[in-house]
Specification:
single chain; mainly alpha; two-stranded parallel sheet; 10 helices
């Protein structure tokens, strides 16, 4: 079996090769990645985390997830939207997160815009899932990881709409990663135990 077509880990289970052998990655792969999320708080969490990940490896953010949870008020969108310049400075001094001013201020901007979408659509979940046919996950038939696209026409469309609304750090590649993380698309390999 090639690395690209899945990885048999020490527990003798075949998983998507990106999960590797890091227990944190394996847990995330098995329990979260590709599973549909309709809860606004979890969707907001992934919006923050995916934005923080821009230009970095996902494991870098995953290892800091608990720190992000503390730094960003347990991903309470109302609290994050109310963050002030004092909070920005606090976050810029927090070694547990990625200290990038544009990403920090972008997260606060995105929180405000997230709430605007909630008002307009009733929930962010209704808005984001409205892009997917019947609001159900797109199940892709991936044989090897190299077949997973970095973006799609749908991620282009969602990203364009969100950018038009003012969202930061949500280009089409980040959007597609968000879609994978929240189960809007299922890109688990055909031979993956979690599929």
């Amino acid at each position: 079996m090639t690395q690209d077509s899945g990885l048999k880990t020490k527990d003798s289970v075949t998983r998507c090769s990106w999960a590797g052998s890091d227990p944190l990655y394996i847990k995330y792969h098995d329990e979260e990645w590709g599973k549909p999320v309709y809860d606004d708080q979890i969707l907001f969490e992934f919006l923050i985390l995916e934005g923080a990940q821009a230009g970095l490896n996902w494991i870098t953010i995953l290892r800091r997830r608990e720190n992000y949870r503390k730094a960003f008020a347990d991903f309470d969108v109302k609290k994050v939207a109310a963050f002030t310049e004092k909070d920005v400075e606090r976050l810029m001094n927090d070694e547990g997160i990625i200290r990038n001013r544009l990403k920090v201020t972008g997260a606060i901007t995105n929180a405000k815009l997230f709430m605007e979408i909630q008002k307009e659509f009733g929930s962010f979940s209704k808005y984001i899932w409205s892009f997917v046919p019947e609001s159900k996950p797109i199940i892709n038939h991936i044989e090897k990881m190299s077949d997973v696209p970095p973006r799609t026409e749908l991620s282009d469309q969602i990203s364009k709409d969100m950018k038009k609304r003012g969202f930061k750090f949500f280009g089409t590649t980040i959007c597609y990663a968000f879609m994978q993380a929240t189960g809007m698309v299922n890109d688990h390999l055909l031979n993956c135990r979690t599929r």
